[in-house]
Amino acid sequence: MPTIMPIRDMRNTSAISELAHKQQEPIFITKNGYSDLVVMSAELYNKFALDNKIDQAIYGKLVNSATGGLSTIQKLGINEDSLSEEELQKAANLPAMIYYGVNSDEAILMRMNNVPRSMAAEMGVEYKKDFANIYKQYSYEIRQWIEGLSSDKWDVFAENKREMSGSDYRAIWEVLNNES
User: Fold this and answer.
1) Separation CA 142–CA 105 (nearest Å)
2) CATH domain 1-48 topology
């Protein structure tokens, strides 16, 4: 479970440093109930920085060697007129699928709203059940839908996912969206 603490608890910097080194996880600091800072050990920061550089390198290679969207369709010789509007939309979303690491349009919507990748697909399927035409939804509507999910729903999405519960995932989502 993520460590979340109010900024007033930062008075004891030695204890926070010890916790950061012991847990090797980010510590989320809130101010007036909203996400404000993230504290982590230098070792963990360096790991994140390296992971980010690796991710950027992979993304750059993928994008440059597998450009997506309508240009891919044209290069493959597929006639755009033979595709439905939904198929054209899916092709246009291919770069976003690569960027977010998901394989469906509804999962892209979840990732765009800070839903963890490991549960974006399942949550997206559920979202699509409630909104048949996901291409006509506004971001605030998607966010309201996510906010309205019960703890039980979050637990269902979190089943078979590492060692975190739905409540843990929801807490992270709330921090990322300044909800806590």
Assistant:
1) 13
2) YefM-like fold (3.40.1620)
